Amino acid sequence: MNLELMVARRMRLGNSVDGSRRASVGTAIAVAGIAVSFIVMLLSIVVMLGFKSEIRAKIIGFDSQIIVFPQASRLTGITSSTIDYTHALENTIKEVMPGAEPTLTIATPVIFKTSRDFQGMVIKGVDCEKGNRFIESNLIKGQMPSTLPDSVNNEVVVPAIMAKRLRIDVGDKIQAFFISQESVKARNMVVAGIYDTHFSDYDKVYAFARRDFLQNVSQLTQRQGTTVTIDNIGNDAAIDDASERLQEAIIRQAALDPEMSFYQVRNIHETGAAYFSWLSLLDTNVIVILILMAIVSGFTLVSSLFIIILERVNMIGILRALGATSFSIVKIFMYVAQRLVLRGLLIGNVVAGIVIFAQTRWHIIPLDPESYYLNYVPVEVNAWIWIGLNLGVMLLAALVLLAPAKAIASIKPTTAIRYE
């Protein structure tokens, strides 16, 4: 152990050399400032990550990562309401995205009516084999439409907003009027379940039923629907890249194969552009918070170290008189500052860890779902970001301590020994 480290470890930060509490106050301020700043920075990051992850999952749960739909006619400008999920289209999708999960989807306008009121929505078909894991995970009552061979296929899952307005519950019968260009078809349906994702912009639009039921109502075959949705692609960059490659592949295939229709490809960043733009603003907010907290913690650390230096000016003079160099004394106080930083980080990590665990487990901090689309503050922990933030705080502390180091080097031995 070198001499500077030994002297730094022997320095008592709890009291000043004359027994007063001034240095201990400075120490407490430094440790508390670092701890609070670290807690705020870490919580800001994990909450931002949680928000982006949860909202992204909700958007994809309703719209899917990539959507293939019919091309509008160049003559009429009218988009066909039907897509043929041919083997050629299926093979093209699998060639471009081998690990993706394409699903034929059907969605059609519908008006639900009871004896008291009515509600217009869009009803989407649920694949009997794959189901809809997102909606199923957000059921608050009942279950998804049954997929058993001998079960009825006219079951529907409705949002809690609609159920409250129409005063219906699981097991109730409801009339559904399906609107097409040719006619309006009426069907009796049974409420199988009620869901609530707290994403009101989507909840008030979509209901869910079996795909084969909607295909029958619309007089479509098992290989016909309104869109083909594709999931299990990867991160945002992979989604953009995959959608571009799929569109190019469809164009090439349509030019070579006369049986292959031309379809449009859009991804979730286009269909949910407003929400992703809102999420991007969170990054700016977090950056501002990180900068402010870094300034606060740096200023607090420098101020506290100046207090400690002033309390030990006599000790500095004695060390200089005994032959210690300015660099050695600076190293002593740098070690002292490291002790303060490590104490603050230790407290900050423990407190932040407890808050994150409690929020993840019990959702102790609520939110207004009407404003934030979530009923609690979400958190998502990234171990690398957590470690990087600790290292960043330590590096920042080393940089801001250059000012106190210059002050120590400028102290003269004769002046320091007589200092009171």
Describe the structure.
By secondary structure, the chain is α+β, with helices and mostly antiparallel strands. It is built from 16 helices and 13 strands. It has helices spanning 3-10, 22-63, 87-96, 133-137, 160-166, 200-203, 211-217, 236-256, 268-271, 273-311, 313-321, 326-362, 369-372, 383-400, 402-409, 413-418, and strands at residues 66-70, 83-84, 101-105, 107-113, 118-126, 139-142, 155-159, 173-179, 184-195, 206-210, 224-225, 227-231, 263-267. A six-stranded mixed beta barrel has the order 4-5-10-7-9-8. A four-stranded antiparallel sheet has the order 3-12-1-13. It has a two-stranded antiparallel ribbon with strand order 2-11. A hairpin with a 4-residue loop joins strand 4 (107-113) and strand 5 (118-126). The radius of gyration is 32 Å and the shape is elongated. Residues 73-79 have low confidence and may be disordered.
Straight-line N-to-C gap: 32 Å
The strand count comes to: 13
Question: Percent range for helical residues?
Answer: 40-55%
Q: Over all CA atoms, what is the radius of gyration?
A: 32 Å
Low-confidence stretches: 73-79
Element-by-element helix/strand order: HHEEHEEEHEEHEEHEHEEHEHHHHHHHH
Question: What characteristic shape results from the CA principal axes?
Answer: elongated
Number of helices: 16
Please state the average pLDDT score: 84
Q: How would a textbook summarize the main sheet? A: 6 strands, mixed, barrel
Strand proportion, as a percent range, falls in: 15-25%
Order of strands, widest sheet: 4-5-10-7-9-8
Pairing-aware structural class of the strands and helices?
A: alpha+beta
